[in-house]
Design goal:
Length: about 375
Amino acid sequence: MTSNAWRQPNVDDCTISLRLDGAGSPPPDRSYAIHVGSGTLGQLGSLLAAGGSRRAMVIADAAVVDPHATAVVTGLKQAGLETDLLTVPSGESSKSLAEAGRLWESLAQLGIDRQTVVIAVGGGVVGDLAGFVAAGFARGIPCWQVPTTLVAQVDSAIGGKTGINLTAGKNLVGAFWQPQGVLADIDTLATLPDREFTSGLAEVVKYGMILDAEFFAWLEDNATAIINREPPAIGHIVRRSAELKAHVVERDEREQTGLRACLNYGHTFAHAFETATGYGTLLHGEAVALGMVAAARLAYSLDRIDEAIVDRQYRLLEQLCLPVVTDTLAGISDETLLAIMARDKKTLNGQLRFVLPNRIGQVELVDGVSPAAAAGAFHAVRVQQLN
Ligand SMILES: NC(=O)c1ccc[n+]([C@@H]2O[C@H](COP(=O)([O-])OP(=O)(O)OC[C@H]3O[C@@H](n4cnc5c(N)ncnc54)[C@H](O)[C@@H]3O)[C@@H](O)[C@H]2O)c1
Ligand SMILES: [Zn+2]
């Protein structure tokens, strides 16, 4: 076996297919594979070489250059690809026009052409930024996603949403640009700080709530193994979440039928909590956990679900060490939160719209929720003030 041969997959390695037709006639096939495995970073080179690629442009989060991006670069070079590496400072502020511009200028100076594959190595920040840079350069060059955070492996690397932030708001400029493939190596999560890892679990619970009651029950049964980061448990949550996200994206790539919108479960509340507390106070997943607590409480107050469902979700979030109440909203009025929600780009003609559970494993888009009902749900997550 040569060094760049694709090794026998581990028992736990698997490939998920995300099937998409192309636009135009005949449609080019835009389907791609999501490879979930452990210790697989070095194999990206052989995968690309087998697909005919000759040149790679790795764009990596500065925090993961050593060891993760370096492992990718080494594998690419061993597979015979001409490879360059550009790094991006860690953090949300890199999802900016300035950073995208800097990368575009660098690609031009390096003589990158349409046959070059951009490879995003990092969390959702680098995935969104590098994907957007690939979508715009030379009117679109191929891109691979190599997610290294739990959020990115279960969510942001899959589905082709790319973009940057403006001063006026998050993700306001972007493009749908599907990757040619996704390689999620769960071993990269070993270096992820606890708070980042835990935060990613909120999106995992979300998939159970919106689509898969059996998966939800599995999470309940395996919460300890998950928080102890036992590899078989991590492998299972990444695989199942990636499958569920791929399933949704295949059926509603551009958020036109309402199915993809269900991925926003907990997010209308979460965005309001993130905005009101100032970005960075709550991690996104922490805000989503609180948002799901509020959404379930809202569904209960509207007589859509039993209290037992509210409790099961609450307990699972708690078992996974996610926040279920917060003091970060102290001093922030219901009116402020409602005003932020009314500005959310997902509202319909300014009316409040929420994804609410019907039961575990099924949600529905509900329009016309009254501000009073929504405000009632804020109280579910506010730390009760003692008088
Ligand atoms: N495109 C989508 O569909 C989609 C979906 C969800 C979220 N997002 C976007 O994703 C971003 C959030 O993603 P995120 O939570 O991955 O944040 P992130 O990319 O900022 O990563 C979180 C932190 O972890 C560090 N890090 C990354 N990988 C690491 C590793 N293996 N070991 C140690 N540290 C590591 C990063 O440097 C950063 O400090 C947001 O910008 C959000 O808008 C996009
Ligand atoms: Zn999210």
